[in-house]
Amino acid sequence: PPQSASVGGRGDPFMAQSFSPSTHPLGTEGQQLSVPVVLRLRHHLLAQMRSLEIGSKERVATHLKVLADFGIDLEVKNDFTSLSITQPISGQDILLEEASVTATELAILLAVCANGTTILRNAACEPHIQEMLKFLVACGAKIEGAGTNLIRVHGVEELNSASYRLAADHIEIA
Q1: Residue 46: which of 90, 91, 84 has the closest Cα?
Q2: Whole-prediction pTM value?
Q3: What integer is the mean pLDDT of 127-148?
Q4: How many other C-beta atoms can be found within 10 angstroms of the C-beta atom of residue 164?
Q5: Beta strand pairing status for 142-144 and 117-121?
Q6: Degrees (nearest 5) of the Cα angle 103, 109, 47?
């Protein structure tokens, strides 16, 4: 049976709450922590998101569509959302409904681990997306199109460790 990302492999409500995108100390970006957990354990339990909106510009529908496009099952029960994978994920041709930074990051993280090639259309191309792509390439990912809204990701068996120096924060410089 699939393990849950929680204490002792059980669906522990405290742990689920601690990984929830709505309460994670990293803010909405905490949802990206769910990707490696669900890919590794095949199942992840999250506390129910309190809001159906992520920020003032992004809708959660884009993120949910990315998960569905990769075949990740999402089930809402009571106060929890369960993410699970029943079969290996494969490359997709995805048109993002909006050029959302976090939806683009979510899709890239899934695509790197997918079998085959994923094409992301209408992808966000902000500097921090480009930094993420450079880091993933340093780890062995095969990615084309950094800095454009068309990104092609060739899935790899595994990523390697890498030393990487982040560029200065483009917002702080301004």
Answers
A1: 84
A2: 0.73
A3: 95
A4: 12
A5: unpaired
A6: 65
166 half-sphere exposure, CB direction, 13 A CA radius: 7
Closest-CA residue to 119 (of 144, 97, 88)? 144
- 94: helix, strand or coil: strand
Contact 83, 34 (CB under 8 A): yes
* One-letter amino acid for residue 153 of the chain: V
Residue 80 in contact with residue 50, Cβ under 8 Å?
no
d(CA 151, CA 139) in angstroms, rounded, equals 17
The stretch 151-163 carries a mean pLDDT of: 94
Q: At which residue do the structure tokens 């090639």 appear?
A: 117
Assigned token pair, 26: 């990293």
Name the region of 42 (left: φ>0; alpha: ψ -120 to 50; beta: rest). Answer: left
